[in-house]
Amino acid sequence: MNSSYLKKKILVVLDLDFTILSKNSDYVFLDYLKPDSFNYIEERRKVSKNWANHMQEVYKKLKNDNVSIEKLKERVENIPFNPGFHEFFDLINSKKEKFETLILSGANTLFLKWILEKHKLVGLFPKYYSNIAVPDESVVINIKPAHVHNCTNCDESQCKRILFNDHFMKNSLNFDSFSNIVYAGDGENDYCLSTILRKEDILFPRNNFPLFEKLYKQNYAKNLNCKICVWDDGFKLIEEVNKLL
């Protein structure tokens, strides 16, 4: 058999908010809240250690303020992608045999479903993990943490490193299953997973966002074994991933 057929795939792992999307999906509808509700949510956000539980309070307030799920869906579906990500997905789609994909998001599974369906990306991203959410008339959206975990470095609602490892176990995968893992994110919650990446893997922190600040202003980059490529748009991912093909 030709050796090209034996080459391992590249695993592409992506965050959603401020990575694929140009905005944070959890913030785009907060202007629907009445002033008292908004102020309550803002104060609660400052002390929250469990994002899923915090967002449940947001949805309860939205329900109290008579905001429909249809309004939320419209806002979320219409968040623009960051420049270059449509093109990055075209690259993956054109060479599907060379890639596997995964989304790990701090938002929720309902928003991911809406976005993937809206942009016809369901087939490209069959696997994704996030806080678990479903429509619920009593509270607009019912949300719960992605899992229970014991990582003291991450938000109580999820640890992306543990979600990633659990995905590997469920699908009988290991690091040797892939020639390279490329992981793009923006937030501090993307750091924990980056600590287990290998030297042949690439972490893409978004320029001047919290993950970048943690790596370069707090000097956490020294703890990582992987290559680090700072990105401003998806075209940087295309440039670097093409070098791996």
**N-to-C series of helices and strands:** EHHHHHEHEEEHEHEHEH
Mean pLDDT comes to 96
CATH class of the domain at 3-22 and 82-135 and 148-242: Alpha Beta
Query: Could you tell me the strand content as a percent range?
Result: 15-25%
- Tell me about the largest β-sheet: 6 strands, parallel
Number of helices, where a helix is a run of at least 4 consecutive DSSP H or I residues: 10
Give the structural class.
alpha/beta
Rough shape? globular
Distance between the termini: 19 Å
The level of helicity is 25-40%
How many beta-strand segments? 8
What topology does this entry show?
Layout: E1 9-14, H1 16-20, H2 35-47, H3 51-64, H4 69-77, H5 85-94, E2 99-104, H6 109-118, E3 128-129, E4 132-136, E5 140-144, H7 160-170, E6 178-185, H8 191-194, E7 202-205, H9 210-216, E8 227-228, H10 234-242
Parallel strand pairs: 1-2, 1-6, 2-3, 6-7, 7-8
Antiparallel strand pairs: 4-5
Would you mind describing this structure in some detail?
With 245 residues, the protein is of the alpha/beta class. The chain has a domain of 169 residues: Rossmann fold (3-Layer(aba) Sandwich), CATH 3.40.50. Helix content is 38%, strand content 16%. It has ten helices and eight strands. Helix 2 runs antiparallel to helix 3 and helix 5 packs parallel to helix 10. It is globular and about 55 Å long. It starts with 8 loop residues before the first strand and ends with a helix.
